[in-house]
Amino acid sequence: MNTKHPFNLKQLLALGSVVLLSPALRLFPAGVAAEAGRAVWLSPAAALPILLAYAFFLCRFMGHRREGEGLAALSLRCLGATAGRAFLALLAAWLLLYAGFVLRAGADRFVTIIYPFARPAFFVLTT
């Protein structure tokens, strides 16, 4: 890892997994977990192989980066100019969609909890 940053790879992977869990935790409150009943413990067991495969890929991919190289430069170097740009465009589209989802989910929370007679568009625009 780069010595300028105080985080190691394990800490960054833990942070990334918590960031990925955040939208799911916003949408699935304790009521859904209670409704699942005794079988709720099976969902982490089913997701574990996918999570481990993702962590393995991320460790291997980021292990090939050079000094001062970020995800965009690494993607362009590993995938080539055309495929790298396509991947980065897909990633940008996903992040834009995700940001819109987070804005809409936050606006819906305001509407349902605090302002039940308001429209979500107002909160999306102000946020």
Describe the model.
The model has no long low-confidence stretch (mean pLDDT 80). Helix content is 76%, strand content 0%. The two termini are 35 Å apart. It has helices spanning 9-27, 30-36, 42-62, 71-79, 81-114, 120-126.
Total count of helical runs of at least 4 residues: 6
Task: Tell me what portion of residues adopts beta-strand conformation.
Answer: under 5%
Main sheet properties: none
Low-confidence parts, pLDDT < 50 over ≥5 residues? none
Rg on CA atoms, Å: 19 Å
Write down the secondary-structure element order. Answer: HHHHHH
Mean pLDDT: 80
Question: Percent of residues in helical segments?
Answer: over 70%
Count of β-strands: 0
End-to-end distance:
35 Å
Overall spatial form: extended
Structural class: mainly alpha
